[in-house]
Write a structure and sequence with these properties.
The complex is a heterotrimer of chains A (307), B (128) and C (388). By secondary structure, chain A is an alpha+beta fold. In chain A, 16% of the residues lie in helices and 34% in strands. Classes of the chains: A alpha+beta (307), B alpha+beta (128), C alpha/beta (388). Chain A binds chain C through residues 177-184, 186-187, 212-213, 238-251, 254-255, 257, 259, 266-271, 282, 293, 297, 299, 301, and chain C through 118-120, 122, 125-128, 132-134, 136-145, 148, 151-153, 155-156, 159, 201-207, 209, 255, 257-258, 262. Chain A: It comes from Nonomuraea aridisoli.
Chain lengths: 307, 128, 388
């Protein structure tokens, strides 16, 4: 399809369907726990002191007894070289499916014991769950959950963490169509008609002459008495252009704009849509169609008349 | 450790606090220290990282419980961002006390609403 | 009568470029000084100024910059490039009626490095003016660029007369051939072939890229004074034998699609009628024509409207070499706006003056009368300049 205005949100998400996302999630969960690299530094006093100072935590326990604050669990492996974890593929697939927004929702840490100075911790990650799509305040999204366990040198868990994020599709802000007409007392009837699916042609209230584009005074009899006729909606293509360049806001190129001659005896400009560009030709019969461009503008456009 | 309501802890979220805690938790993501970049990405300002939220929840509870307490578990539900320039105020109440194990319900609020809510479980006089 | 009362006594221009690196006001001031110098006049002699309504530089600003003092006449001519010859018409009227003695006409812009006319401007249909309302019947459909506005006429012309894109292409090829030997032209030394024209990308079918004039930075100024005084100045005068503006019934800006016929330019017919009547000349009396060539199709239409050939005959006329330097009607010996530069038609008037003086880059023999037109598709204007 060519020449279709892009002003109307399509609404249909592109990308990976929900089933595929869940299949991938199940596959990643089946991988079980995947070990990462051990922390680059052993648990050490300088980093603990730095952390306590920054947090404003005056608890003397840690440095006195050579222990790490429990909430530091993740800190020890923040700088570890990261292999691809089972989580990454799921998040990437969600991004690709349009769920590009991310916000962390839950962080649950269980401390089996406090880590001790000098020990080196090794994280292991397992992907646990993908739930969705769900409607949330931020938009439709999936909740992805994974668990990390930090092990000591004896392979005993020191800390376990459950982490959950919401990957959401940022709601499409309905963009106003950028090519708006200016409307005044002389032209409002036309645009209101388009919203009601009527192609309105100005008719002089005195001499009956039809006229498009409309205006305040009948050029034939100078009357300002105006009314309108509703056109049959049929027309013939009188001339046309195929716009390729430069890009036009609110439009995908190439698109066709034509001058359409109506049997009522006036011409009107509009897009020829739902017709391959190479099949557009002068003289082709057309029928009007009304397309909402945004929540305030409806344009009368033209499609090939069925043979 | 007798009271059932924890004394409030109010922390001014100065840029210094946001940035120094981000770095102390070895989180170098720019939104936690680069104001211009954070704003360019649609944030109001730099904001607290999650590792720090966990750290501050821990501090809030151990400030009250004292150095003999041992934290066993922190469950946090994360809410609105805690931006530089805001104030993070923690409140808490004891919800259960059983065999030396205390559970505290914690709520950390900023001007936009709840930043972190959850529970902390600790042993009153534990061995780490 | 206006005929023969005033003359172009001086012409001046900046270089033609894609990025002048200077403000539009500076370009205007430079061109005005160059034109005065060409005429052997000084800013103190100027008492009138005319430009296009689209020019960004007010007359008083150009006067301030160039040290021009009191102005007794100033005027701005409407309708885009259709104003080009109109500036000279207004100046000639002012001189002939005594409103001013020495009038400078100028057009200056950074049309390539600044605001580019060829780019879509959704604001065209945004103003509650008659023009905004007019544009509102076209812009919402994406019919928003000059190339597309012209292409709509061009398609109808092809359909009615059985012409082809190659007929447009021959205009472009001729203009580029002329520019190739004009050192002031942007496309100096860069002619094109018809094959290259056909291979250039679509802009708005049926117009290829090479059917569209360039985008240029630059300025051109002209000095208009009385014919008698001009004869005493430094350069041979180019007499304003005829000057006219024209708008047709049902006229719109670039989109007069609602008239009976879409293959002509009725407004140019209005201009032509006046030019021939005022000058007492006929098409066979002019040795060169400067035809506004922002887009190739309207060069064909103008040849027909001005009476150089019959309706639908322009493609054949051009195919037979009619507008070449050695043809019966050399058109745009400087290369036009397709080849030299797009200075909104003002550079074409300067070329007409050079042809009459005998010092053009592609000088034609025995030039005594040159016809010049302004922007097409809009209310327009025209001149016949003569030696004398």
């Amino acid at each position: 399809m060519t020449g279709t205005p892009t002003g109307t949100p399509t609404g249909t998400p592109t990308g990976t369907p929900t089933d595929t996302l869940h299949e991938l999630a199940a596959k990643q969960a089946a991988l079980g726990e995947v070990r990462g690299a051990p922390g680059p530094d052993p648990v050490n006093a300088p980093m603990i002191r730095h952390w306590l100072t920054a947090m404003g935590d005056a608890n003397p326990l840690y440095l006195e007894q050579g222990l790490a604050p429990p909430a530091m669990a993740q800190v020890w492996t923040m700088d570890a070289p990261r292999d691809r974890s089972p989580v990454d593929d799921v998040l990437a697939a969600l991004d690709a499916a349009g769920y590009t927004g991310v916000v962390a929702t839950d962080c649950r840490q269980t401390y089996h014991r406090y880590a001790r100075l000098g020990e080196r911790l090794t994280p292991a990650t397992r992907f646990t769950d993908l739930a969705g799509p769900k409607r949330t305040a931020l938009g439709v999204g999936f909740f992805a959950t994974w668990n990390v366990t930090w092990y000591d040198a004896d392979d005993r868990p020191v800390t376990e963490m459950l982490f959950r994020v919401l990957k959401f599709r940022p709601p499409e802000v309905a963009q106003p169509y950028p090519l708006q007409p200016v409307v005044n007392q002389d032209t409002a009837f036309f645009w209101e008609g388009a919203k009601r699916g009527e192609l309105r042609i100005q008719r002089c209230g005195d001499c009956g002459a039809l006229r498009h584009p409309p205006g305040p005074m009948c050029p034939a009899c100078r009357s300002t008495a105006r009314t309108h006729a509703v056109a049959t909606g049929r027309g013939t293509l009188y001339s046309y252009v195929v716009h390729h360049h430069p890009p036009v806001p609110g439009r995908e190129t190439p698109f066709v704009v034509g001058v359409v001659e109506l049997p009522e005896g006036v011409r009107i400009v509009g897009n020829v849509v739902d017709c391959p560009v190479e099949e557009v030709e002068v003289g082709m019969p057309l029928r009007v169609t009304f397309r909402p461009m945004d929540d305030r503008l409806v344009l009368p456009l033209w499609t090939p008349e069925e043979a | 450790m007798t009271s059932e309501t924890l004394p409030e802890l109010a922390i001014d979220l100065t840029p210094t606090l946001i940035i120094s805690t981000a770095l102390a938790t070895r989180d170098f993501t720019p939104v936690h220290h680069d104001t211009a970049l954070a704003r360019a990405q649609g944030s109001k300002d730099v904001f607290l990282n999650i590792l720090t939220t966990m750290g501050l929840v821990q501090r809030f509870v151990t400030d009250w419980a004292g150095p003999r307490a041992v934290v066993e578990r922190i469950d946090v539900r994360l809410g609105v961002p805690a931006y530089a320039g805001d104030r993070l105020t923690f409140g808490g109440t004891v919800t259960s006390r059983e065999g030396g194990r205390v559970t505290v319900r914690v709520r950390g609020r900023v001007s936009l609403g709840d930043h972190a809510t959850g529970t902390v479980t600790l042993k009153e006089d534990g061995r780490c | 009568m206006l005929s023969g009362r005033a003359a172009v006594a001086g012409i001046g221009a900046t270089e033609f470029s894609k990025e002048s690196g200077r403000s539009e006001l500076r370009l205007a001031a430079e061109a005005v000084l160059a034109a005065l110098d060409d005429a052997g006049l000084s800013p103190a002699d100027v008492d009138g100024m005319v430009t296009y309504s689209q020019d960004a530089n007010q007359e008083i600003a150009v006067a301030r910059e160039t040290g021009v003092g009191d102005l007794t006449f100033f005027s701005r001519v409407e309708y885009g490039g259709g104003a080009a010859c109109g500036t000279v018409a207004h100046a000639a009227m002012a001189v002939a009626t005594g409103l001013a003695r020495t009038v400078v006409c100028y057009r200056a812009f950074n049309e390539r490095s600044g605001r580019r006319f060829g780019q879509p401007n959704a604001g065209l249909s945004g103003e509650p003016t008659s023009q905004g309302l007019e544009m509102s019947w076209h812009v919402p459909y994406g019919l928003i660029t000059p190339a597309a506005w012209v292409a709509m006429f061009a398609r109808r012309y092809l359909h009615v007369y059985g012409a082809t894109s190659e007929d447009f292409g021959r205009v472009a090829v001729t203009m580029r051939r002329h520019a190739a030997t004009n050192p002031a032209a942007w496309f100096h030394g860069r002619p094109i072939t018809l094959e290259e024209h056909q291979a250039s990308r679509w802009i708005a079918e049926p117009l290829h890229l090479l059917d569209c004039c360039q985008e240029s930075d630059g300025a051109v100024a002209l000095v208009v004074t009385s014919a008698e005084r001009a004869r005493d100045l430094r350069r041979p005068p180019a007499l304003i034998r005829a000057a006219a503006q024209g708008s047709g019934a049902g006229q719109m800006m670039m989109t007069s699609y609602y008239r009976d016929d879409m293959t002509g330019l009725p407004e140019m017919s209005v201009v032509a009628r006046q030019l021939w009547e005022m000058s007492g000349l006929s098409p066979s009396d002019v040795q060169a024509a400067i035809l506004y060539d922002h887009f190739t199709p309207f060069v064909l239409t103008q040849l027909e409207e001005l009476g150089f050939c019959g309706r639908g005959e322009a493609p054949g006329f051009v195919r037979d070499g009619g507008i070449a330097l050695d043809g019966p009607l050399p058109v745009n010996p400087h290369g036009g706006q397709l080849g030299e530069a797009y200075i909104h038609g003002m550079n074409g008037i300067a070329e007409a003056v050079r042809q009459l003086r005998g010092d053009a880059a592609n000088q034609l023999a025995g030039v005594t009368n040159v016809l010049v037109t302004a922007g097409t598709g809009v209310p327009t204007s025209g001149l016949i300049l003569s030696s004398g």
